Amino acid sequence: MEDYKSWLNVSGALDVRHRDSMNNNTEFSFCRFPFILNAGIKAHVLQHESQMTQFQSRREHYRNLLLGNIEGGYPYFVLRIQRENIIQDTLSEISQHESEDLRKELKVQFVGEEGIDEGGVKKEWFQLVVKNIFTPDYGMFTLNTSNNSNNLFWFNGDSTDVVEFELIGMLLGLAIYNSVILDIHFPKFVYKKLADPSCKGTLEDLMEIDGDLAKGLQRLLDYKETDDEDSKTEEIFGATFKIAYSTLFGVQYHDLIENGGEVPVTQANKDVYVDLYCEFLLEKYPKRVFNEFAKGFRKVCMSRSLKLFKAEELELLICGSSELDFHALESGTHYEGGYTKNSECVKNFWDIVHEKFSVEQKKRLLFFSTGSDRAPIGGLQKLSLVIVRSGPDSDRLPSAHTCFNHLLIPDYTSKDKLEKCLLAAIENSEGFGML
User: Fold this and answer.
1) Which tens digit of pLDDT belongs to each residue from 22-54?
2) In 90-208, where do the E strands start and end?
3) Is the per-residue pLDDT at 322 higher than 90?
């Protein structure tokens, strides 16, 4: 981390007065050249910075206590939430805190429930907020199902819930600072705009959000007229600079230029038409709500380390990867309570996972054990799964402590019994209920 500290010292000096006066004796730092660093190293730098920020908050709190200042603030950012009112309570709690508090280590307590949050409750809170706020009932996002990929959410520019968009932005920031992977499906353009607010949307970006429309616009760009009068672009496509677009409230209309309905799209102006179409759908239409979302994100994420990340790396940092290598998970797994990698039950466990489980069952197992079905930057081996011997052979099902990535398995004496009990456990549990 010496390289990181050197970079902080240098970047801290790069204000307007010093930027042009840095001499050739400036201490070298790899962090000044992020293109040579892989995503895993960048994530490690960010994690170190986050931990240092949280440690300093705790140290300052205890220092104030020693000096007799009992009002010196609390070292953690604590949310007390009612399950049945999770979105409203979260909004109310977060709105009472400054940015500095949001960057402290997060602890979540569900009102009326016992237990200390060592990570598992926090993970469940993230999951529940994401699950609730992305439902159609809230009307904050439109869901694109036209592409042959995961369903992607896009911003409803007509939504009036601007405060809740800020909440989602803060949620992403809190997840980064607390090393929690979120099950959020945004198009890559969202992460491009977070990484570089000046980024402009392109037809390629629109392809993720509305594939059918983007393909139609690409056909327009590819079209070549012939000498035949009937081949003119305006005759073939019949488009004008007045567009129709779908929202949750029905079809809306917009003039891309003044009196757009009276201006036909021709071979000469079709490039301008496509650029304006993309600009409107990707930037102008969602601008009001996206700005609130970005404001919430930056309210938490003011870290210099985040500037190291490219858009695709930022997406991996927040959402993890859907590429799951369970052999890598096995290589990074530790064993406790009497198990070793050579224990019969352990060998049976990995045989079942590798040879019998479907992709969906593997994802369920991962979610059951860690609270997420995605891999962090660096792959599944970075999870450091721990398999613990939970007593001798019995009829008890396996259980998990997702806060520590601990999977507790009785020492079943047969592979068939292990498979049966494991399937029963992962298919009949959700969230923090099994802990």
Assistant:
1) 344 456 565 555 555 666 666 666 666 666 766
2) 105-110, 141-144, 152-155
3) no
Residue 203: both structure tokens together: 């037809």
Contacts of 168 (CB under 8 A, 6+ apart): 133, 140, 293, 296
**Angle 244-248-252 from CA coordinates, rounded to 5°:** 20
Average pLDDT, rounded, for the chain: 83
pLDDT of residue 6: 57
Gap between the Cα atoms of 110 and 124, Å rounded: 10
Sheet containing strand 406-411, strands side by side: 334-336, 386-392, 406-411, 399-401
The upper half-sphere exposure of residue 229, i.e. CA atoms within 13 Å in the direction of its Cβ, equals 0
Give the residue-averaged pLDDT of 187-201. Answer: 92
The predicted model scores a pTM of 0.77
pLDDT at position 384, please? 87
Query: What does the buried/exposed string (b/e) look like for 73-101 if buried means 16 or more CB atoms within 10 Å of the residue's CB?
Result: eebbbbbebeeeebbebbbeebeeeeeeb
Active-site positions? 403
User: To the nearest 10°, the Cα dihedral for 261, 216, 287, 308?
Assistant: -150
How crowded is residue 20: how many other Cβ atoms within 10 Å of its Cβ? 7
**Neighbouring-strand partners of residue 244:** 253
Tell me if residue 406 falls in helix, strand or coil.
strand
Tell me the HSE value of 351 on the side-chain side, using a 13 A CA sphere: 12
Average pLDDT for residues 384-409, to the nearest whole number? Answer: 92
**31 secondary structure, DSSP code:** G
Q: Residues 263, 257: contact at Cβ < 8 Å?
A: yes
* 8 Å CB contact between 229 and 241: no
| Alpha-carbon gap, residue 248 to 142, rounded angstroms | 7
Q: CA–CA separation, 158 vs 162, rounded Å?
A: 10
Question: What pLDDT, in 10s, does the model give residues 224-256?
Answer: 988 776 678 999 999 999 999 988 778 999 999
Listed residue (51, 64, 3) closest to 31, CA to CA: 3
Looking at residues 156-166, what average pLDDT do you find? 87
